[in-house]
Amino acid sequence: MFGKMITLRKIVDPRGNLTVAEQLKDIPFQVRRVYWTYDVPGGISRGGHAHKHCREFIVAVSGSFTVTLDNGNNKQSFLLNHPYQGLLVETNVWRTLEDFSSGSVCLVLAEDPFEEEDYIREYSEFQEYIKCLK
User: Where is the Sugar 3,4-ketoisomerase QdtA cupin domain (predicted)?
Assistant: First the structure.
């Protein structure tokens, strides 16, 4: 398994709904970095990389987009379109985010602070890296 959808607690209230995500409880790691993307132009994709160590939890807090995960042998695509669900992305998985709806916001909770050495940014390098892990 290289990606897993997790449904978070949704507290329904007539004044507006609330969703909570707690580290080491709802998300299986300590959150060390949070970032979000928004105003993604139509037809543009994001991601296009893998992490050697950092796991991520990706949520469409507004709108929708598709996340495609690739472990070097198989691909899985996930439509993220509920702010109370997120996608846990394991390490050594190539990820691409695309098909962003207008007004979408992608929130990422990351296990590690930014470290360039953790990234694999070329798909051919990712394929070689995966071969070496086997």
Answer: 4-130
CB 88 within 8 A of CB 3: yes
Strands (E), the chain: 3-7, 9-11, 18-20, 33-38, 46-51, 56-62, 65-70, 75-80, 85-89, 94-98, 105-110, 119-120
pTM of the model: 0.95
CATH code, domain with 37:
2.60.120.10
Q: pLDDT for 96-132, tens place per residue?
A: 999 999 999 999 999 999 999 999 999 999 999 999 9
Please give the tally of structural domains in the chain. Answer: 1
Q: What is the pLDDT of residues 51-66, one digit of tens each?
A: 999 999 999 999 999 9
Among this protein's residues, is 49 annotated catalytic? yes
Give the active site residue among 49, 51, 53, 82. 49
